Sequence to fold (386 residues):
Amino acid sequence: MTDTIPLTVLTGFLGSGKTTLLKRLLSDPQMAGTGVIINEFGEVGIDDALVEKLDDDAVLLPSGCVCCEVRGDLIESLERMHTRSLWGDIPKISRVVLETTGLADPAPIVHTVMTEERLFRIYQLDGVVTTVDAQHGLAELDQQFEPAKQIAVADRIVLTKVDLADPATIARLEGRIRALNRSAPIRKAVLGDVPAHELIGLGAHEPALVGTDPERWLAAGSFGSAAGRDHHAAEEHACGPGCTHDHDHAGHHHHHDAHGAAGHNHDDDCGDDCAHPDHHHGHLHGIGSFCLSFAEPLDGPQMSNALSLLAQLYGPKLLRVKGILNVKDQPRPFVVHGVQHIFYPPDTLKSWKGDRRQSRVVFITRDLPEETIRRHFKPFVGEALP
Fold:
């Protein structure tokens, strides 16, 4: 729907810089007319910026943004913000930023906006932005599942406090992030200094909004070609200074994510923080990402059946699925997009980009290896490309 209000979910682990990023974002003139929903004003720490208190749970910020506190049900809070905007009780809302707590799993929020009829007629999920602490991110990922899940479902990742971390640590952290989510662009920030246009208007959950460049939405190129995947992944997961480990097989990290790294020889020069994902099945919490390609046009009903059964069998393990499909006898590319067991209705894009009409599906999964997915699709649409 073109008249829906874009909604951005801002998430990130405790102390990862969400507050700083949010305050900087709201100072951008592009963000005027933004509705902000947070858990409590004290947690976000924007009291120093208040110029007008509208009522007990809403304040007007200098940028013209309205910041409301979540009290109870999220659905009711979003509905109430929209209604009050229509009635003129608060300024007109043109977009919404929803900031989660540091321990939140953003997936239920995504499900709510995708499936709750009271919301999806009003709001359109624009994207999930995740902040990651450059100083402490590696340790947090070692010890906690929450930041790993927040990274895995992100459409944009903001690496914060990069001025406080050394380049080797940042390189190792980027490698770990890439093992969790290969397709989300990473932006580095000092004191939350990221231009608003890099975090809003993503259309990440509405592929038709990306216009004539569906490749930007799918980001399948970040997985590399079948032939060049090893070299690409080896560069992305470089251990940093001092690491001499041979990364020739890095592109196949998803197999090790699911099955462990038994028999793998780890060069001691890498140290405990080597970012190569083969050594970090536990640190990745079973999360892996991969892309399947299909050379021949697909049978539409068969692919639909395969995806439906996939969601039924493995829904909780499917953190994100998105694909562009070449369907038999259809001139336009079809789009598939799902979060866990919920899939958006199929949609078509206006045209293919160039002559490449190859079906590709990107998966971000937990404890679900690529080989299992390949075996699942084979009876329906045949072999995926190696």
